[in-house]
């Protein structure tokens, strides 16, 4: 099956946050906040995404309650990714199923089995969003987070081990020879005998090769170590890019990094987030944006912004700006920290404006407008090589996501920038990625 796509075909996934991506949007009438953590609500949203022909639903994850204790239920662990994606696999047919699993708290053998199993259960629609963690270590008996360099060394080794476990079965290892009584050609299973800095893993995997062999690998680090890992192994790169010019620079730099590592840059998809607030008129969209802003809990927002920036903002008035000297020029604070500093220092946002802006975007771009206006911007970014598509952040659920699926996506389809039907049977095929087979692997 051909994996080529029209040049103008975007990738569209959605960040599945049933509470709504816009912080405190769960306070709106009709939010169904009472159902968070249950299957029916998230299944309805996923089936809505599949009906719109989106490439994938993407579940983030956290393994601590720190955000909940600050009054923020948006980025929560209500839906453990492997559990919910396994349930959704049985109730969907085409859409990709991407889950976040941190390399900081898991073991490669377990993750290799979980994702291989999900790929089998879904018929080849599994994806893994690879992250390292900076919080939650105390829940695993570790007093403090390792430094970023150590976390990324562990992540690099972790992913390598997982991929080698997926490749520990040759193609054709399952023979089901009833006459001889041999289910497997055991000569086609290979121990990996890995001994590294962080892991010792014998292998082989105890599960047959899954439909994709390698589930799609997503990665979301935009720092130096994150870009190094993503350009080495990522099929799809999630990134926060609120500025078109900088996104163009990031896109070009990332593709070049992948090319320098011997990879086809067309097989590394750059997918920034966007939060579209949609109305039939621009005035209607802006009124909806204002309504969402009025639901933001300012005092909880102060605590959340302070935690994100690692600052004590308790004495700062809402209409004051964060002093420029409070910010640090330290790459260890991450790419989003730099975005917040730009908005506060260069754009001059007050604390109140910053709280509401971050409630909407968390570092991503957002836009209020008609379906045509939002599509114009998305097409402009796509044609300018600022991205290969977008991760759609639904501002509120279910209503905000229904507007995206029923109004924005059809606008992009009518213009020829998005599919009308799924092209392939697997997630990799729908992304336009090549199949993975042992014949393509290094000796």
> Could you name the CATH class of the largest domain?
Alpha Beta
Describe the sheet with the most strands.
8 strands, parallel, barrel
The H-level CATH homologous superfamily of the largest domain, spelled out, is Luciferase-like domain
The number of distinct β-strands equals 13
Q: How would you describe the shape? A: globular
Strand order of the largest sheet: 1-2-3-4-9-10-11-13
Percent range for helical residues? 25-40%
* CATH topology label of the largest domain: TIM Barrel
Count of alpha and pi helical runs = 14
Mean pLDDT score, rounded? 92
Domain Luciferase-like: 31-383
Family: Belongs to the NtaA/SnaA/DszA monooxygenase family.
Organism: Kocuria rosea subsp. polaris
Binding site for FMN: 61, 100, 152, 222-223
Helix/strand layout:
Blueprint (H helix, E strand, L loop, with lengths): L10 E5 L23 H13 L4 E4 L6 H4 L11 H9 L6 E7 L5 H15 L3 E6 L16 H19 L7 E4 L4 E3 L9 E2 L4 E2 L14 E4 L4 H10 L2 E4 L4 H17 L8 E10 L3 H13 L3 H12 L25 H12 L4 H11 L3 E5 L1 H13 L5 E5 L5 H16 L12 H5 L12
Parallel strand pairs: 1-2, 1-13, 2-3, 3-4, 4-9, 9-10, 10-11, 11-12, 11-13
Antiparallel strand pairs: 5-6, 7-8
Helix pairs in contact: 3-4, 4-5, 5-6, 6-7, 9-11, 12-13
């Amino acid at each position: 099956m051909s994996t080529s796509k029209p040049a103008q075909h975007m990738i569209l996934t959605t960040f599945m946050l049933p509470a709504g991506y816009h912080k405190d949007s769960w306070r709106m009438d009709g939010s169904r906040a009472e159902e968070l953590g249950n299957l029916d609500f998230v299944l309805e949203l996923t089936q809505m995404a599949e009906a719109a022909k989106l490439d994938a639903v993407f579940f983030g994850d956290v393994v601590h309650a720190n955000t909940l204790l600050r009054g923020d239920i948006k980025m929560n662990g209500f839906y453990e990714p492997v559990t919910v994606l396994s349930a959704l696999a049985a109730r969907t047919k085409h859409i990709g199923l991407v889950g976040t699993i941190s390399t900081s708290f898991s073991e490669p053998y377990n993750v290799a089995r979980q994702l291989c199993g999900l790929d089998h259960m879904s018929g080849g629609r599994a994806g893994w969003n690879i992250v390292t963690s900076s919080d939650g270590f105390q829940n695993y008996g570790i007093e403090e987070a390792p430094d970023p360099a150590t976390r990324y060394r562990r992540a690099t080794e972790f992913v390598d081990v997982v991929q080698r476990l997926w490749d520990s079965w040759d193609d054709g290892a399952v023979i089901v020879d009833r006459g001889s009584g041999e289910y497997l050609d055991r000569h086609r299973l290979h121990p990996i005998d890995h001994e590294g800095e962080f892991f010792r893993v014998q292998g082989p995997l105890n599960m047959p090769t899954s439909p994709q062999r390698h589930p799609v690998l997503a990665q979301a680090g935009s720092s130096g170590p994150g870009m190094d890992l993503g350009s080495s192994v990522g099929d799809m790169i999630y990134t926060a890019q609120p500025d078109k010019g900088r996104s163009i620079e990031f896109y070009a730099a990332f593709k070049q990094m992948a090319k320098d590592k011997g990879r086809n840059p067309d097989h590394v998809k750059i997918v920034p987030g966007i939060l579209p607030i949609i109305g039939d008129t621009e005035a209607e969209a802006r009124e909806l944006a204002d309504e969402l802003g009025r639901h933001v809990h300012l005092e909880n927002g102060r605590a959340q912004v302070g935690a994100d920036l690692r600052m004590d903002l308790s004495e700062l008035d809402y209409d004051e700006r964060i002093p420029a000297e409070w910010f640090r020029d330290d790459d260890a604070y991450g790419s989003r920290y730099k975005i917040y500093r730009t908005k506060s220092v260069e754009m001059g946002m007050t604390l109140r404006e910053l709280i509401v802006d971050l409630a909407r975007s968390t570092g991503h771009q957002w836009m209020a407008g008609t379906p045509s206006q939002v599509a114009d911007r998305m097409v402009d970014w796509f044609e300018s090589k600022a991205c290969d598509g977008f991760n759609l952040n639904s501002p509120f659920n279910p209503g905000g996501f229904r507007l995206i699926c029923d109004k924005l996506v059809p606008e992009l389809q009518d213009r020829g920038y998005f599919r009308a039907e799924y092209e392939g049977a697997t997630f990799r095929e729908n992304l336009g990625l090549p199949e993975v087979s042992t014949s393509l692997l290094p000796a």
